[in-house]
Design goal:
heterodimer, A: alpha/beta, Rossmann fold, 2 domains, five-stranded parallel beta sheet, four-stranded parallel beta sheet, 9 strands, about 40% helix, globular, B: alpha/beta, TIM Barrel, eight-stranded mixed beta sheet, about 30% helix
Chain lengths: ~325, ~425
């Protein structure tokens, strides 16, 4: 009796354009490619003298971070400013929620201030969906990370980085290594890579860091890193949070590094032209060797540059999708 | 008062009755079936033609939230919801505030129910003081004050020695113990069944083992102590099978499931709809199929609503931040009728799980239309389609995924002790 509609369709307006950006899951290859193409044009713009375009002029973007973050927050701020928006950064993790205000009240208050876009990071999986569906459907919602569920801008900046170095996704074998269990990044990468047509996606981790039935997402599972890295084109490392050592998931950092850390020896098992990526911040000597992180195959700093461009792309696309929806609604009401 | 209920299809599973006939009620009791007793003059007639007349439903788990959580529900609202759903007797867990670990609380609940005169409410007493899993609750005194069974609900009794002592003490006084089995560590932080959907959604999973481990531990101690035990709201096929095997070995154990576990699965959580946030969580399709098999094989003796009303705000947040549970008293019948509609079982078989089945578990002479027994009666139209709306819902909570959906089968009259307490 509950017809299974794709819940991720709430990201799209009636024309099939992006109006929120919540997850890479369920988005078509055309939309993902449009994000990459749009972002590509912004990457080049970053190198020019004047780095601004007026796409979001007069719009108010609120960065709502219920979990602390420096890197993601600052790239979102820069992206919004380069689109000429007015930007408000709110670090809510320590303010209103501790006074008992609910997430819904916080959002509705900000909506009443005529905000046009919310960039939301929250520790609960599904928080961005909740806001877009039940709280402020008319404000463009960009998911900057929700629990373990999704981190779609990180995934698409990774896709952009891969495309700029490898061109086509079709022949690529990609390995995602490390704490898959807790990683919203891994989930969003897997959906994006599948839709963009990567030949093979592998995840490499001990069983304690693999979520149940991860293979159902369309990946090959390896618990042995040497086997998993064999002949791959792209190695995507994940950050290992230090507190995992206290929860009986791993015996020690040194054992993790020995088995799953990306050392030059292990990297040598991948294709000679394989590239290495990491969403940052890096734990040197825990998940990756310094010589690899700083080495010629590393694209870690490219990822940061591309991150601003991808965020500009999804912000401008979602704002435009919301505007189209509103115009259609206004026209319908006028008739 | 003398009441004649005429022309209905009378189904009384306990007595193998399934026939169209009249039913006579007098002095709060069932007076006769078929032809009127000598000198019977009806003061009221209920036309039940085209409808089913059966014993009122007995719900083995419905939270009424009072005392302590009246923002979510009260005895007044929830017993009204019960009779609107044809439920004439309900068992309520001790998880009130204060918990039911003193005779005062047990008596307060029952007195309030008697004053209201709606559904009969049978409180379960706490197994340990404060449900803290440390000291025995005064079970004998609580039983004398009307507690029908004893449970620690979903609060852990981590220490197996203490649990064994509880069961020994209950066995001493021939008291029924109810388990809502869940391992605390394997459940902690989890919000849905651990499987493909939890992996996709990034929600923390509750593995099947969270239930089966505790079922195994409880069964072992039940066998050792010989206590009468009931397993409530099981969600996994494997745990039901364990209880079935124990029963076949001769243990005095029984099991119920909440009706929604026979209809929904973890895949319904797709989309983060907090209405599907339940404890125990909705399980896999295989579990659902297994529970349905167990139901027809009599491995499950009762269906319950596991009614848990909440205020709107409790469900209005991201999935993991919401409170688990859904209301169910007013949908128990139409949801259960889906099992008949889907061809899983016949109407009398289904009604047994809602009437004499739960009565037997509780050791009560109830849930039947036997002459001389209390006239707790439900009259429903099995064919009427209706839409569940917030306005028409009597429970204080409106939290159910079925809100707004069209359901089939509607309660028309409910009688308690021969008094009409609900009519549509």
């Amino acid at each position: 009796m509950f017809e299974q509609t794709d819940p991720n369709q709430i990201q799209l307006n009636s024309e099939g354009q992006l109006k929120h950006y919540l997850t890479t899951e369920g988005l078509s290859r055309e939309i993902l490619t449009e994000i990459l193409d749009t972002a590509d044009s912004f990457v080049d713009m970053g190198e020019q003298q004047v780095k601004k375009v007026p796409l979001l002029r007069g719009k108010t973007v609120v960065n709502l971070f219920f979990e602390s973050s420096t890197r993601t927050l600052s790239t979102f701020e820069l992206a919004a400013k380069r689109l000429s928006a007015d930007v408000l950064n709110l670090n809510i993790s320590t303010s209103s929620t501790s006074k008992g205000e609910t997430l819904k009240d916080t959002l509705m208050t900000l909506e009443a201030m005529h905000s046009d876009m919310f960039v939301v990071r929250h520790s609960d999986s599904g928080a961005a969906h909740f806001i877009a569906e039940h709280v402020t459907p008319k404000v463009a919602v960009i998911n900057a990370g929700d629990g373990r569920h999704a981190h779609p801008t990180q995934a698409m900046l990774d896709m952009l980085t891969i495309r700029r170095h490898k061109g086509d996704f079709a022949p690529l074998t990609v390995a995602i290594v490390g704490d898959i269990l807790h990683s919203r990044v891994a989930r969003s990468q897997i959906h994006a890579l599948r839709t963009l047509g990567a030949a093979e996606i592998r995840v490499i981790a001990p069983q304690t860091l693999l979520p149940r039935h991860i293979e159902a997402l369309g990946v090959r599972v390896f618990t042995n890193m040497e086997q998993g890295l064999k002949d791959v084109d792209v190695v995507m490392m994940l950050r290992l949070q230090k507190e995992r050592m206290n929860s009986a998931l791993l015996p020690s950092e040194s054992e993790f590094y020995k088995l799953y850390g990306l050392s030059p020896d292990k990297l040598a098992l991948a294709k000679p032209d394989a590239v290495v990526m990491h969403p940052g911040p890096i734990n040197r000597g825990v998940e990756i060797a310094s010589s690899v992180a700083d080495g010629p195959q590393s694209l870690i700093l490219d990822q940061v540059t591309n991150g601003i461009a991808v965020r500009m792309a999804v912000m401008s696309m979602s704002m435009s999708g919301q505007a189209t929806e509103k115009q259609k609604l206004a026209a319908a009401n006028g008739e | 008062m003398n009441i004649k209920i005429s022309g209905g299809r009378v189904i009384d599973p306990a007595n193998n009755v399934d026939q169209v006939c009249d039913l006579y009620v007098s002095g709060g009791k069932i007076a006769a079936l078929g032809s009127a007793p000598e000198g019977f003059e009806a003061e009221q007639q209920i036309d039940a033609s085209g409808q089913i007349v059966c014993p009122g439903f007995i719900d083995l788990c419905a939270h009424v939230r009072e005392p302590g959580f009246t923002i979510k529900g009260s005895i007044a609202t929830e017993t009204q919801a019960a009779v609107a759903g044809g439920v004439t007797m309900l068992v309520t867990p001790p998880t009130t505030k204060p918990v039911v670990d003193t005779t005062a609380v047990a008596e307060l609940i029952q007195e309030r129910c008697e004053d209201l005169g709606k559904a009969k409410v049978l409180p379960m007493g706490a197994l340990t003081k404060g449900l803290e899993g440390q000291m025995l609750a005064p079970m004998h005194a609580l039983a004398s004050s009307g507690c029908i069974a004893f449970t620690n609900a979903r609060e852990p009794v981590a220490n197996s020695l203490i649990l064994m002592r509880c069961l020994e003490y209950a066995a001493t006084h021939d008291l029924l113990v109810q388990f809502q089995p869940q391992d605390a560590a394997l459940t902690a932080g989890g919000h849905m069944h651990e499987d493909t959907t939890s992996t996709r959604l990034g929600l923390n999973g509750i593995p099947e083992a969270a239930e089966t481990i505790e079922v195994a531990r409880c069964l072992t101690l039940v066998e050792q102590t010989g206590v009468r035990a009931h397993f409530g709201q099981l969600s996994c096929e494997r745990s039901v099978r364990m209880v079935m095997e124990a029963r076949e070995r001769g243990l005095n154990v029984s099991a119920d499931v909440a009706i929604h576990h026979l209809l929904l699965t973890d895949e319904n959580v797709n989309g983060f709809n907090s209405a599907f946030h339940l404890i125990p969580p909705l399980r896999s399709q295989l579990d659902r199929a297994g529970l349905r098999q167990a139901l027809i094989a009599d491995g499950i003796q009762a269906l319950c609503s596991d009614h848990q009303p909440h205020e709107a705000a409790a469900k209005d947040a991201p999935f993991a931040a919401t409170e688990p549970g859904m209301i169910g008293l007013e949908t128990l019948l139409p949801l259960s009728l889906m099992l008949v509609d889907q061809g899983l079982m016949e109407m009398p078989q289904l009604l047994e799980k809602l009437t004499s089945g739960p009565a037997q578990i509780l050791g009560l002479d109830a849930g039947t239309l036997t002459e001389g027994s209390a006239a707790d009666i439900c009259i429903f139209d099995p064919e009427e389609s209706w839409t569940l709306t917030e306005e028409d819902t009597h429970s204080k909570g409106k939290n159910t995924p079925f809100m707004g959906y069209e359901l089939k089968g509607r309660v028309k009259h409910t009688l308690i002790d021969g008094q009409p307490v609900f009519s549509l």
